[in-house]
Amino acid sequence: MSKPSKTILRVDASVRTTDSVTRDLTDRFVNALDSADTTILSHDLAKGLPLIDEAWVGANFTPEEDRTDAQKQTLEVSDNLIADLKAADVIAIGVPIYNFGIPAGLKAWIDQIARARVTFRYTENGPEGLLKGKKAYLFVASGGTGVGSEIDFATSYLKHALSFVGITDVTIVAADKMAMDAEASMAQANAQLAEALAA
């Protein structure tokens, strides 16, 4: 009996394309899962994404059947990003912590994929995420910010944002406080990576 096919969505947010800890961790994770039955979708946010603006908001809140061609074009990037997210079984996100938070490109990605009636909806019991049954991994690196500390606004935000659209199963692999003890930080991250791959 053949294994079921799997789709992995890889999202890189580091502005560094060489010597990036998050890209290295994400590389090793995705490569370990890659097989003939795996489809890998990739978005490199270092190349930039359009920011949402008034035209985007107007298009988003116009019923789909009433959108003009210009409004459809305005939402095209968002539609494509969401299509890949919907297709994915596993999401691997490289998350460098910049100034206690996530990179601007990753925030732009969240803004593009968090859409009412598409990835979440409002109900009488509050908001409900629509992207259920997916597993996300955050590959985090920082110079001095401890993951889970009171100054870590990156992982708490991302876990909440992913949960808001229905992705509640999130594992963190962290090479944090690299500026203080890079060897220990990488040893910790490598152990967490091995554990994630064995799960």
Overall 3D form: globular
State the CATH class: Alpha Beta
Largest sheet: 5 strands, parallel
Query: Approximately how much helix is present in the residues?
Result: 25-40%
What is the overall number of helices?
7
CATH architecture assignment: 3-Layer(aba) Sandwich
How many domains? The number is 1
Average per-residue pLDDT, rounded, comes to 96
CATH superfamily: Flavodoxin domain
Q: Segments where pLDDT lies below 50 for 5+ residues?
A: none
Radius of gyration in whole Å, from Cα? 18 Å
How many β strands by DSSP?
A: 7
Which class of secondary structure composition applies to the elements?
A: alpha/beta
Report the oligomer. Answer: single chain
> What is the third-level CATH name, the topology?
Rossmann fold
Beta-strand content: 15-25%
Q: How do the SSEs run, as a string of H and E? A: EHEHHHEHEEEHEH
Strand order of the largest sheet: 2-1-3-6-7
What does this structure look like?
The structure is a single chain. This protein is α/β, with parallel strands linked by helices and 199 residues long. It has one domain (6-198): Rossmann fold (3-Layer(aba) Sandwich). The chain has helices at 21-33, 54-60, 69-74, 76-87, 104-113, 154-164, 182-198, and strands at 6-12, 38-44, 90-96, 120-123, 126-129, 135-141, 169-175. A five-stranded parallel sheet has the order 2-1-3-6-7, with helices on both faces. A two-stranded antiparallel sheet has the order 4-5. Helix 6 links the parallel strand 6 and strand 7. It starts with 5 loop residues before the first strand and ends with a helix.
